[in-house]
Amino acid sequence: MAPPSAMSPAQDTNGDDSKPSTAAPHEPGLGESKARVQMPKFPGPPSFADKYAERDYLKGRLAAAFRIFGKRGYDEGVTGHITLRDPVQPDTFWVNPFGVAFSLIRKDDLIQVDHDGNVIDGGKVRLLNAAAFMIHGALHKARPDVMCAAHSHSIYGRAFCSLGRKLDMITQDSCSFHNDHVLYESFNGIVLAEKEGRDIAACLGDKKAALLQNHGLLTVGETIEAAVFWFISLDKCCQAQLAADAAAGGRGHETVKIDDEDAAFTYKTIGTPKAGWFSAKPLFDVIEKECGADFLQ
């Protein structure tokens, strides 16, 4: 028998048949008495009293993020960048040096950039990708809540971005982006102009992800982990929709869409900043195990 939906509340709903229980967030409308196993509260990232200690820790996490991107094949020559707002000097950010492979990046390779595009600190290679500055500089300036922004030319992301459309809510995972992603409907070549960086930031607004038409994916987060997980998940959602659309189209059908109420309910569990941080934890645990302390040097 199909599970009760948010559109047809179950009889056991915390004493009010008109409202779904929140005890089992993956089953909208499921009564509390039937929700025998409830979702635990997500833990959160560590906190620091010392901003310099926080910087050191976060630079290690950013280096790990690049190792994760490299492992997943998100590098395409010298393209792609992930930035970290500096906790000591919040009007600056750390980014990968231009031309250094994701899979080789260490904490001490990262370079610090101010909002005028000047490299003010960092490793031996102090080449700055101009496109990285134009996009990420504008994002960090427009969004004080964003600690990290990630952009790269992943295969499925850029394939989907050629369609000029947003994601359909066809899987549970896609609900992470329900009403929380945008389509940037412009392509003017490599982003080397300040105006386009500002236009991308304006289009993103308060959302966590953007599909850059004919270009690729862009995600942001309150933590490095969240931004990284949203990017990986968004690329997989693009892959799933490309496959599902092709399969459905080949049979003369359309994919089955999740209704707005169920998608919104699911988003509250899997689409939050803390959920993004926690979902990335296994990725970071594995890369630390595989790389040892190499990326922390």
Describe this structure in words.
The protein is α+β, with helices and mostly antiparallel strands and 297 residues long. The protein has seven helices and eight strands. It has an eight-stranded mixed beta sheet, with helices on both faces. β7 and β8 form a beta hairpin. α2 (130-142) packs across α4 (194-204). The protein is globular and about 55 Å long. Mean pLDDT is 89; it is low at 1-25.
Features:
alpha+beta; 8-stranded mixed β-sheet; 8 strands; 36% helix; 12% strand; disordered N terminus
What's a quick, concise take on this entry?
The chain has 297 residues and is α+β, with helices and mostly antiparallel strands.
Shape: globular
Largest sheet: 8 strands, mixed
Order of helices and strands: HEEEEHEHEHEEHHH
Strand content: 5-15%
Distance between the termini: 55 Å
Number of helix segments? 7
Using only C-alpha atoms, the radius of gyration works out to 20 Å
Structural class estimated from helices and strands: alpha+beta
Ranges with pLDDT <50 over ≥5 residues? 1-25
Number of strands: 8
Quote the average pLDDT. 89
Strand order in the sheet with the most strands: 4-3-2-1-5-8-7-6
Helix coverage percent: 25-40%
